[in-house]
Automatic annotation (TrEMBL):
Signal peptide range in chain numbering: 1-23
Signal found in the keyword field: yes
Record's protein name: Alpha-L-fucosidase
PANTHER family for this protein: ALPHA-L-FUCOSIDASE 2
Any Pfam family the entry gives: Glyco_hydro_95_C
Domain Glycosyl hydrolase family 95 N-terminal, residue spans: 38-267
Length: 788
């Protein structure tokens, strides 16, 4: 566990004397424990009310039933489908024709040609889908009335507990997913003199075979017609009483307590899943429940406890439903704390080094055909999943994303060459574990060759936070180089301006109205394309310069940047989404791709580019006026935009919108779908990152303290937020004023410091009482802890 301490000599960069009593009181209050717990007083009636546990590979949704319990099971690698070479062979020939038509303003013809000749239909059988592993059903045999029921997810321990009483007897059930032991485990116990009598059954409705290996049940199979080979083992042991195999499970009689252990594996990332799952199960034979639960909790806490946010001090509602209602200021503060904690919990539970990244639903999905295959959309969704990783001290969880990109790269290089005739590598809006990078589907979303380019930003951010030059050299640079080569080859001169533009491409999933009244999608040099080109070329420049390598590539990037068409402010004062001020078909569209440069990009900054920042504000205003932010992830992105612009109250308004219309009873982020909203994890994780961004920002070489603090967050503290340059930041504030700050530097870092808005008059002193000015560069020394 990483903590900010004051063991070392305080640097004393800033001496703040305001409100010391209130600050001391805030420190004395400690964490609000209840905001780390989601509590319910009834079992889940449906999947969107169940509670998740996960270890990055194995996961379960716990319903908490009394007579019958359902644990819906997942394994992050369980996919149907297969690897195929599916790049359309007509794209390359059509490319110059589509460009010529767009430059000639023949948009209708260009859109038709792009759809007909550049795209291929998606083969859903080959593409495949994420699938559930199955169910673990517990038939408890209870017929009597139940009292004192509770169902809780403790986000700090990573465990779900169900408790109730029948007569004088108590019953409890604890479910956890252990990363150290690579298992799902359930413990059921009772105080009833007659003990427990129950039936535990492992179920899967298709592509499955069961086999008993001694006292262990094996479930295995392969999704048809194509997919991974999977295997799971279930064992059961009791304290007292008896356990006997029964069908596809176990029958328990007269036990004081029962422990069920499930292990599982696939052959997606490693061979011989039977041996892997069996070996994990064999190790559990000598493991007591107490040791297993202790090690699981210790491992989970080591990640979860790195950051702590406290806004609520009293009057915190116990039930999750009462917090979601937010009927009081205290309830809203508890809601924000809970949501922030839940996002970090979900990232930890759905993602560990060595596993696949969290998909559209993280780790948790019901059935065999979840919406959009629960795949890896790379036109914002997988990226948003990782937004909290660095700032919330979970940097090592980024590793699974980089491993995933490594898997994609051979196919992305193939797509660049076959489809476009370009060097380097390219991927489009959606991918899967089989290496899908091709153009398919509708041009509205499919003709967007910038998904891999967006992912380069994650490599750069990881480097900025960690300072790991070896990572930059061995993991990041090959991806930068490949994306830069494709970008350089895909850029062409706009004959009307002489500037370099990228295209054809869509602005993800959005559309415009053409002169003939039809809807169009593709463009040359739309804002998102130009921002992506700017980002890839700039980051490649910076990376090669930091490593002192590849001067030719750096010079090529610099030459292209000098001619690159940049973001435009349209006649209406907004950031212009398309190359021309075209009429929007959906003014309230969920994607706000033309503001990529504001976040997570590097082009728009409230201090450095005030005109573009003002245009971004106008853009946000118009999007919201027409109903924008109507999906959870879109509301999270809008919250982040507001935070970057220093608009705390507006950021809070977007959080409230997300809570009100895009948050399920179990705090899962929701996305509009038929017949009912579905879970997408991106909104949870994006909003968690946005809350952190409201409190600390560190982009553009500036450390901003409380840059977007809402008025209603008058008192609070946060511990352990990370800043670029290897900094760990603790803050406390009272009556809306910063009262205490500690910054620990893990390595040498150079920053300009900005005080919270409204506190510019604070006197800043160095350790030697030499006066410093806000905004002047300050060097923080490695290993030092500074009190600000």
């Amino acid at each position: 566990m990483t903590r900010s301490t004051r063991r070392e000599t305080l640097g004393g960069l800033l001496a703040l004397s305001t409100l010391p009593l209130l600050a001391a009181q805030a420190r004395a209050q400690g964490p609000t424990a209840s905001t780390r717990v989601l509590s319910f007083n009834a079992p889940a009636a449906r999947w969107m009310e169940a509670l998740p546990v996960g270890n990055g590979r194995l996961g379960a949704m716990v319903y908490g039933g009394v007579r019958s319990e359902r644990l819906q099971l997942n394994h992050i690698e369980l996919w149907s489908g297969r690897t195929v070479e599916d790049n359309p062979k007509t794209t390359r020939a059509a490319l110059p024709k589509v460009r010529e038509l767009l430059f000639a303003d023949k948009r209708a013809e260009a859109n038709r040609l792009a759809q007909d000749d550049m795209m291929a239909p998606m083969n859903e059988v080959d593409y495949g889908s994420y699938q559930m592993l199955g169910d673990l059903r517990l038939e408890m045999g209870h017929e009597e009335a139940v009292s004192d029921y509770s169902r809780e997810l403790d986000m700090a321990t990573g465990q779900v507990t169900v408790r109730y009483r029948i007569g004088k007897a108590t019953y409890s059930r604890t479910v956890l997913a252990s990363a150290p032991d690579q298992c799902l485990a359930v413990r059921i116990e009772t105080s009833a003199p007659e003990g427990l009598s129950l039936k535990a059954t492992l179920k899967r409705d298709r592509d499955v075979a069961f086999d008993w290996q001694g006292q262990v049940l094996k479930m295995s199979g392969q999704p048809q017609p194509f997919g991974v080979h999977y295997c799971a083992y279930l064992a059961c042991r009791s304290e007292g009483g008896s356990v006997a195999p029964d069908g596809h499970g176990f029958r328990v009689s007269g036990a004081r307590a029962v422990v069920l252990n499930l292990t599982g594996a696939t052959d997606l990332l490693a061979p011989e899943p039977e041996k892997v799952a069996q070996a994990a199960q064999a190790k559990l034979v000598a493991r007591s429940w107490q040791a297993l639960a202790r090690d699981q909790e210790r491992d989970h806490r080591a990640l979860f406890e790195r950051v702590e946010l406290t806004l609520a001090s009293a009057g915190v509602p116990r039930l999750a439903s009462e917090r979601l209602a937010a009927a009081s200021d205290a309830a809203e503060m508890a809601l924000i704390e809970t949501y922030f904690n839940f996002g970090r919990y979900l990232l930890i539970g759905s993602n560990r080094p060595g596993s696949l990244p969290p998909n559209l639903q993280g780790l948790w999905a019901d059935g065999f055909a979840p919406p959009w295959s629960a795949d890896y959309h790379i036109n914002i969704n997988i990226q948003m999943n990782y937004w909290p990783a660095e700032v919330c001290g979970l940097s090592e969880l980024h590793e699974s994303l980089f491993d995933y990109v490594d898997r994609l790269m051979p196919y992305a290089r193939q797509t660049a060459q076959i489809a476009y005739g370009c060097r380097g590598a390219v991927a489009h809006y959606t991918t899967n574990p089989w290496g899908h990078t091709a153009l398919d589907g509708k041009v509205q979303w499919g003709l967007w060759p910038e998904g891999l380019a967006w992912l380069t930003l994650h490599y750069w951010e990881h480097y900025l936070y960690t300072g790991d030059l070896e990572f930059l050299k061995t993991r990041a640079l090959p991806v930068f180089r490949a994306c830069a080569e494709f970008t350089l080859d895909y850029l062409v001169e706009d004959p009307r301006t002489g500037k370099l533009v990228s295209g054809p491409a869509s602005s993800p999933e959005n559309s415009y109205v053409m002169d003939n009244g039809e809807v169009g999608y593709v463009d040359m040099g739309c804002a998102m394309s130009q921002s992506m080109a700017f980002t890839v070329l700039t980051l490649t420049q910076k990376a090669t310069e930091a490593l002192s390598v590849e001067p030719e590539l750096r010079e090529a990037c610099a030459a292209a940047l000098a001619r690159l068409d940049r973001l435009k402010i349209g006649p209406d004062g907004r950031v212009q989404e398309w190359s021309e001020p075209l009429k929007e078909a959906e003014p309230g569209h969920r994607h706000i791709s033309h503001l990529f440069g504001l976040y997570p990009g590097i082009e728009i900054d409230a201090h450095d580019t005030p005109d573009l920042a003002d245009a971004a504000r106008r853009t946000l205003g118009e999007r919201l006026r027409h109903g924008g932010g109507h999906t959870g992830w879109s509301a999270a992105w809008l919250t982040m935009f507001r935070a970057r612009l220093g608009e705390g109250d507006e950021a809070l308004a977007m959080l409230r919108k997300l809570f009100r219309q895009s948050t399920g009873a179990n705090f899962f982020d929701t996305h509009p779908y038929t017949p009912e909203p579905i879970f997408q994890i991106d909104g949870n994780l994006g909003a968690t990152a946005a809350i952190a961004e409201m409190l600390v920002q560190s982009h553009s070489g500036i450390l901003r303290l409380l840059p977007a603090l809402p008025k209603s967050w008058a008192n609070g503290r946060v511990r352990g937020l990370r800043a670029r340059g290897g900094l760990i930041v603790d803050l406390e504030w009272a009556n809306g004023q910063l009262t205490h700050c500690v910054v620990k530097a893990s390595r040498k870092a150079r920053y300009r410091l900005l005080p919270p808005p409204g506190q510019e008059g604070l006197k800043a002193l160095s350790a030697g009482e030499e006066a410093l000015n806000w905004g002047k560069p300050v060097e923080l020394q490695a290993g030092r802890t500074y009190a600000l």
